[in-house]
Amino acid sequence: xxxxxxxxxxxxxxxxxxxxxxxxxxxxxxxxxxxxxxxxxxxxxxxxxxxxxxxxxxxxxxxxxxxxxxxxxxxxxxxxxxxxxxxxxxxxxxxxxxxxxxxxxxxxxxxxxxxxxxxxxxxxxxxxxxxxxxxxxxxxxxxxxxxxxxxxxxxxxxxxxxxxxxxxxxxxxxxxxxxxxxxxxxxxxxxxxxxxxxxxxxxxxxxxxxxxxxxxxxxxxxxxxxxxxxxxxxxxxxxxxxxxxxxxxxxxxxxxxxxxxxxxxxxxxxxxxxxxxxxxxxxxxxxxxxxxxxxxxxxxxxxxxxxxxxxxxxxxxxxxxxxxxxxxxxxxxxxx
Amino acid sequence: xxxxxxxxxxxxxxxxxxxxxxxxxxxxxxxxxxxxxxxxxxxxxxxxxxxxxxxxxxxxxxxxxxxxxxxxxxxxxxxxxxxxxxxxxxxxxxxxxxxxxxxxxxxxxxxxxxxxxxxxxxxxxxxxxxxxxxxxxxxxxxxxxxxxxxxxxxxxxxxxxxxxxxxxxxxxxxxxxxxxxxxxxxxxxxxxxxxxxxxxxxxxxxxxxxxxxxxxxxxxxxxxxxxxxxxxxxxxxxxxxxxxxxxxxxxxxxxxxxxxxxxxxxxxxxxxxxxxxxxxxxxxxxxxxxxxxxxxxxxxxxxxxxxxxxxxxxxxxxxxxxxxxxxxxxxxxxxxxxxxxxxxxxxxxxxxxxxxxxxxxxxxxxxxxxxxxxxxxxxxxxxxxxxxxxxxxxxxxxxxxxxxxxxxxxxxxxxxxxxxxxxxxxxxxxxxxxxxxxxxxxxxxxxxxxxxxxxxxxxxxxxxxxxxxxxxxxxxxxxxxxxxxxxxxxxxxxxxxxxxxxxxxxxxxxxxxxxxxxxxxxxxxxxxxxxxxxxxxxxxxxxxxxxxxxxxxxxxxxxxxxxxxxxxxxxxxxxxxxxxxxxxxxxxxxxxxxxxxxxxxxxxxxxxxxxxxxxxxxxxxxxxxxxxxxxxxxxxxxxxxxxxxxxxxxxxxxxxxxxxxxxxxxxxxxxxxxxxxxxxxxxxxxxxxxxxxxxxxxxxxxxxxxxxxxxxxxxxxxxxxxxxxxxxxxxxxxxxxxxxxxxxxxxxxxxxxxxxxxxxxxxxxxxxxxxxxxxxxxxxxxxxxxxxxxxxxxxxxxxxxxxxxxxxxxxxxxxxxxxxxxxxxxxxxxxxxxxxxxxxxxxxxxxxxxxxxxxxxxxxxxxxxxxxxxxxxxxxxxxxxxxxxxxxxxxxxxxxxxxxxxxxxxxxxxxxxxxxxxxxxxxxxxxxxxxxxxxxxxxxxxxxxxxxxxxxxxxxxxxxxxxxxxxxxxxxxxxxxxxxxxxxxxxxxxxxxxxxxxxxxxxxxxxxxxxxxxxxxxx
Lengths: 336, 1019
Description:
- The complex is a heterodimer of chains A (336) and B (1019).
- Chain A is built from ten helices and eleven strands.
- With 336 residues, chain A is of the alpha+beta class.
- Chain A has two domains: 30-61 and 285-317; 62-281, no CATH class.
- The longest helix of chain A has 27 residues, at 33-59.
- In chain B, a hairpin with a 5-residue loop joins strand 23 (506-513) and strand 24 (519-525).
- Chain B has 33 helices and 33 strands.
- Chain B: One of its GO terms (biological process) is phospholipid translocation.
- Chain B: Pfam families: Cation_ATPase, E1-E2_ATPase, PhoLip_ATPase_C, PhoLip_ATPase_N.
């Protein structure tokens, strides 16, 4: 045995010995006032600036939110909105005017927002077949898609409640009579287009039943290119959510008025859901959401306050470290 | 029921009795799976998990892939099963080795070499020197002309001295060649486990001697697992074989002990179970209401108008499955794992190795280490436990003259030495009794010095002392003892040995002086067993004084006596004795009665005083443990004064005025009752004073108190911190343990001898000292240690750490399960109370089995305080004793923490990831990583000392979480594809994580600091 290997050997033996004797070298942090106060001070001093920066990023995002579900129902139907939306003979087009308050830099994201819509309902969220989306009719065990699995004994592609209830309102944007250039490509995740939805899978027997849910699909376009469907099928975990519709690739100036022509097809009236149209720029943090910034400032300032309280407590009730007379059994004998 | 063994008859008993195949196996290859599964499923927890797993197979209600429960369940079962299988396989191997050992057996009159497993009852087995005995044999021949052989019984009872075994008188003198052809019948009881008794008879068939029945005792047997020593060969008849041998019968699986902590954990599990049912019912009802009012309007959910009949059950069952993770599936496995590590730490501990013998401490029972930290009462034996059990002859009183009083060592007392050389007849007789009245075997070593092999340390001390006083016991040749005294050699023939029993408390031998043919009875025993039998007219006052005086000094006393017998008197008695010895029923009692007839009119010669030194560190150990709030009871067979003196010298009780001893005595019920009342009254008054009050009770009074006055005695037991019980029998020791246990105290019994075994088995924790009285106690015990002083370390270090660690581990297990479960419950409120799982199956499974189990397992290395600190302030143990670290209120704290953390994670996640970021997979991964981050910091905050292993486990686990999820995110077919990559690129993800950690840990840290610094828990 060489010296080096022997040394290594004994080292390993010592390590095992220390382990068996429970004597491995250890550091024992103690919650001393100095440590605790420093930790809270430190947290405070880090969190407040980060919070402010985050808040600034969130505030830098310009956002226009317009609810349109109620406005787009013609006056006579305002009492019975459901019959309006379910009657195919009534034209569904509707016009919105959006005023831009602040300069918005391209790309401007167009979202539709649904409130009180439970995409996370258990019955709904499970009603899909990932394998069928990828492999098409070849894949046959689609029992998870119930109750939208077959129609007239033919399989439905894409099957399931999620696809069946596809959102089908459409929007077009006009500024000063000129149509705004809206890019509807690349709104879905690249990974979904390439690996989750088949390139050779075409819609089949879709929305052919007696009960029509939401939008229809062009049977000549493969699923991997049906980006609206792909976006829709990324279900949301919250009952209020936004989904990307497209991007406006032109800047909008302050005081511009954007005219939106939309087809109000989708039924949210029967369950009291809201539909909103959202135009939003984005920052490094994403869309406009003050929560993180405010929470950071709150946590940071709470930390500072706690640090201050603990500091005062420490100054008032100073006790030496490691004084055994504070031990309960010793104290008892002191007082008694 | 009796068994008749026909010697050398191949046919008759073959079918009747089992062969000599030893089997300690629990399973066979075929029944392993069903039997093991059945055993595992007899636990409530496992039944519960199986039910959950089965429910998950119903896809309508399962929130996640059934694999998330089946996986861990199968894993846990596999772990337990493989442990069982491994143990059983090792048992099989050792059985096989024993079964296939080759032995010489007589078959059809010819000696044959066969495997041990083929021995049948009635076969004659031949053994050579140093052979292991393959089954229980009745000796019929040895190489020794006197028919003696020596066996080592260490494997059976742990006693290392050699024991003599003798062939029955009927077989005496049978020729070596004829032994092959011997025929006869042995009438013996059915197999039992008493290794000290064998009440049987032997009758040989003609032509071998006559039809006389020859009694057999344990002396005529050699039992399985003993070794033949110092004897060229021996042969015997197999009477018990296989698992029916004395050893096989005494094997048995002891009932598993349940620790106080296990009971508490079970209770808490029950509480969580009830809570879970409540949650399920509330959510189930809410879910059904929501479904009927809201979901019907949500057209995209497409609820059918008419559901199946079980429709109303679907949602509650879904919630049952969602909430089933509230009870952590891994807790049993984690606990088993850490418990076996606690035991290993005890085995490994270098500081608990007995330096003299090199014997390490050993935890036989690996499941009860936490109980060590919660001990409230220690019941200890005296001899061999507190003392060294190394007897040294110190003083004696011969016919009224005290020797050794000045020097403290009679062997150096000039007066005594003068008397010996002067040949004073009293002294010579006294020394003769010392040298002859015993069962010691002298062995000549190679250097010529004589070594004594003694079963009793007292006898060893007496024989050695006699030798120092020139009365040397030189040789024992069959029944002839050779004694050398002052240059002359005297031979004695031992006619009869009246053995020592704990009831008789004395032993005697009848010997014949070969020179003058006089028959003498020599007796030694406890004073109360000898003095009453003195001949009428002898003044025993001086002896009583001597006994008292010696007992005051803490010495063990024995009275020696003798009596000359007339030839015809002896012959008459001898017949009775033979008859009593060959009875099969109540033999011990009959013999005692017959002995009584001979042991009277004794001439008391004197009193010996033997010192038994205290073990090292006993007073310190007792003082430290008493400071730690542990109460000590001493249970001893010794006399009251000796016990009190030992108690004083080892800090057991304080001397007056600080301490006070209260005596309970009396011979009748009334006397005992009155004295009990008096003691109780004093005890009640003084209980408020800082005074050490102890009560002393003797076996007789104890018997009455336990039988008739159990209630006042129980009250006394609760009030008194210290007690000394002397003259108690083994069963009384066990009764006292039982009494304390019935008052809900955690008891620890410690002892070293066979008479402590019952107490050790009865107590919550049994500790055996592997001492000079053999290993019997150590074998029966849960822990065996080499010295009493190790008890301090066992309790204060190992017990306390085990308690602390298990307290954290078990509560943490519930905490982490509750966190994830609460998040699921909160999520159900924003998902239409429909029972959607926020987390996917892989995450849920990995969370329970992997992410949260590994870091917490290394808490077995955690030490809240250093060993030195605990030893210095043993009062710290109060916290463990009172169960301050695991009780409903600490559990409520953990419950609250889990609720708080679930709220933090849930609220921050749904607000930070709102609107366009609210994609399901991403949001669930954010929530999961939030939990994992919090877990890492919770474990870190609760860890008191960080070794490299802890750092690795805590932070390495966090890294592993990301690595695993990144791998899953790289697989296109997985549901998590690209999720982790996307999240890791988002600044908002990391900002969210830090927010969760700060918001979750800040208040916990502040609260912990505040409570530790300004509101320490009072005891």
